[in-house]
Amino acid sequence: MRRARVVSAFILAAGLGLALLGQFYLVYRREYVWDGVFFWCTGLLLVGLAARRAGTAERAVTDQPRRPWWSGQASWPTLAMAIAIMVSAVAGFLARQRSAQTGYTPHLALWITSVVIYLLATVPPLGVRTGPARLSVPNRSRLWHLIPLGGLLVLALVVRIFDLEHVPRNFGGDEGTWAMEGLAMVAQGLANPFATGWFAFPSMSFLAWGTSMRVFGETVAGLRTLSAILGTAAVFTTFALARELWGRRVAWFSALALAVGHYHLHFSRLAVNNIADALLVTLALWLLLRGLRSGSTAYFAGAGAVMGLGWYGYFGSRLIGVIVVVYLAWRLVAEHEFLARHGQSLLVLAGGMLVVVAPLLLHYAQNPIVLVERSNQVNIFTSGWLAAEHAITGRSAAGLLLQQLWRSISAFNYTLDPTFWYRPAIPLLDFVSGGLFVLGLIWATAHLRRPANGLLLIWFWLAVLLGWVVTENPPSSQRLLIAAPALAMFVGLGLEWVIDFGRRAIGGPARLWSGSAAAVLIAVAVINLHHYFVAYTPTGMYGNPTAEATTVLGRYLMAQNDDSVVYFFGAPFVYWDFGTLRFLARDVDGANIPPLGEGEAVEVDRSRGLRFVFVPQRLEELESIQVLFPGGVESSAVSGSGDRLLYVLYEVPSPSG
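^ that's the sequence the OP posted. Answer follows.
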């Protein structure tokens, strides 16, 4: 027996080592990609051999459905829920009739009231117990367990909130536009929160970040703080969901992987609504699973409300409803009594979603093109991308789709993010997490029939297929934040499998294996935090060169204390109303100067100080300005790496000095 364990230990260690080596090649020695693939495949074969020698243990996961607490009793909860949905629709209808100059605070309050009424109608009255769902006072041991979790959340918040003003170093154009839209939402009374704005985004998202600036300050850091909070909250909900699915240890592994993972960390520091996807999907799925296990309609109502709230965020959040529907359909097919046990609760789920999203649906009914506008722009079928690529490359539609699929599924281990939303120069998972992710994905697929694994796989593959494969330019990192917790859970499952299998195949005290898991997680944290703050941040890669130039210029103009006017020689490459400048230099007067021979001439106000800004592509016009306005001071701004000119500034003081 001892000899068999030694052999199993050797095979397992060799397999994991080769897999890790293969992942290292895919991340850091990309020119030897096939060597990395060979090491990976060999490692997986050895790990599979070790697993075959040791065998696997199955653990069943079942629901404990219970009858809804109000079933067969007075119908007032049903009546209250119906009234709540109607009140929500009335709030949306009245908002459509409202003048934009009068403010929408009463309508928002009416909508919130309707949602609260709906949720309260599903809560059991005092004195009624609902099995596992009943409230209880946590005992002392449970409180002690909360202390390490609190420490994890503090860590997650610290790495997300540290120096938000300057990390990432650039302030993106989309962030700037988001900030201005947010300020407009709260500038003079509340603007309509049940409409859409820039790029067809629901205006409720702009309201959220506008409120963030009201609370934390109208600065870059104040704007980004809400994202940091949402990212931290997602770590907590990931812990809760993973614990519901696989237990405390996988929950810890998954939450730690998400807390320090460079992909989720980066978007937790950007002022855009993509980051909310990770929080909403984990919260909705946790509430759904709690409802399925306990039978409490309150959980179903909460899950539906979160699904509806996702419609007010990034478009990826709308995938939550698809994930839930596919998962429930799978359970319905697999369990013949599923609908009989949960049918009424599923109606409550649908009602919870409807009461939240009703006002926005009325807006879409009035403006149907807005509903699909953004999707049509990025979908490879409706945007014309597939036909255009076929004409350019001569490749078949099937070949192009396979290329899309490969770029999407390899984004976590090999293919790099092509966008300036992040562009980290390594895959979206570090090489250690990437290896554990593959192991977790294989393990979950091998045990597909378990409801927990089925849910995770449905979530992951729907996100990859609908978020990347059928959209242009995968793997565009900004589109798949909804899958970030799923990636962390695969990492957690992979590490759990290694630890569990190692203990059974090799033996040894539990403390040794727990220490090994802790060492792996510490290594993951060090690798990710070093990459993001030490290697990536100084590059100034985020936001593209335009964002870097306008960030430097905007911060400079913000620091000046005069009434000089800026004449911006940037068109057609970048304009004065670019989002970064709109926010950073929002109190500065400026004007776009069109290229020679294009557009109308701009009259220069000689009574004030003058600042002429030239992008490199229009630098030849500087000399003529110096002739017309002599006595100025010329200066240049270069990129953080020092190898690229950002702009040239020519400043002429005002006549009054």
